[in-house]
Amino acid sequence: MRHTRKMLQAAALACLLGQFALPATAAAQGYPDKPITMLVPYPAGQSVDLLARVISDGLSKVLGQPIIVENKPGAGGTLGTGLVARAAPDGYTLGMSSSGPLGIAPHLFKNTNYDPVKDFTAIMNVAAVAQTMVVSAKSDITSVQDLVAAAKAKPNKLNFGSPGNGSTSHLTQEMFKQRAHVQMLHVPYKGGPAAITDLIGGQIDVLFEASPTVTPFINRGDLRALAVTTRAPIPALPQVKPLASQGYENFEAVGWMGIVGPAHMKPEVVRTLHAALVKTLQDPAVRQKLDTQGMLTVGDTPEQFAAFIKSESEKWGSVIRSADIKVQ
């Protein structure tokens, strides 16, 4: 997708956001005239929650109304996301959701009770987090080519860890297996830290994990980075090549976080919110907070975000069906 490539061109971000800005005449008259609630489908302190609070603070200043962040965790993020889908489409209930509930969960769980494409109004894909393919620094595997060769030489002998069955990390590895035509065993953990500990210790062979999480381990020599999952290198690991440039054309798998509302919101309300978000992301203080969290600013249009949600849902649905992934 064009806008996901642009998200990594940090030097051009100001220009990028400027072209997404909408004229003041497109704004909704009188909106907002009361506080706005932003639902977060995860617990406080999680990355989506942190982003929601940073953006809400800036958005409140631009709109002149309080933005109240409410955490509604549960069911892998589908509980809170479903509440957004069922809210009144008046612009006073929004959601900061992510790739899990909107791109992955509807294909894993039978009772999400919403359609990620039809039941939401896309407003802006705000930020993304790259993943990095890592092995232990003590491993004999020093490149993606080494990994593929070893996996092909001994099918189902190498294993890969993940923070959990059906996680973005798990699905990214499954997508890589499909593209590389290799067979490896999946070892699910209850969270990323346990998987990283076992990777360093040599109990598992490879792991895809959020770049901000593994970068400290890479920098101090515990882990070796083989690739990143964005279309271009990321600022935190500029020396690490993307899989897309290592023979896996168009390979992309990021954890993204964006703002949506219920379906059928008025276009002028969407334009008002989007223009305010553009202005919020142009604030250096906001950008600094996102950079500190290792987040890559996206800042696309509602139309681009809607198309992106659709493409992500289709991509992950295909991976899940091909790998026959089941979640209890």
UniProtKB/TrEMBL annotation:
Keywords: Signal. Gene3D superfamilies: Bordetella uptake gene, domain 1, Periplasmic binding protein-like II. Transmembrane segments: none annotated. Residues 1-26 form the signal peptide. It comes from the Bacteria. This is Secreted protein. The keyword Signal applies. Belongs to the UPF0065 (bug) family. The gene is bug94. SUPFAM superfamilies: Periplasmic binding protein-like II.
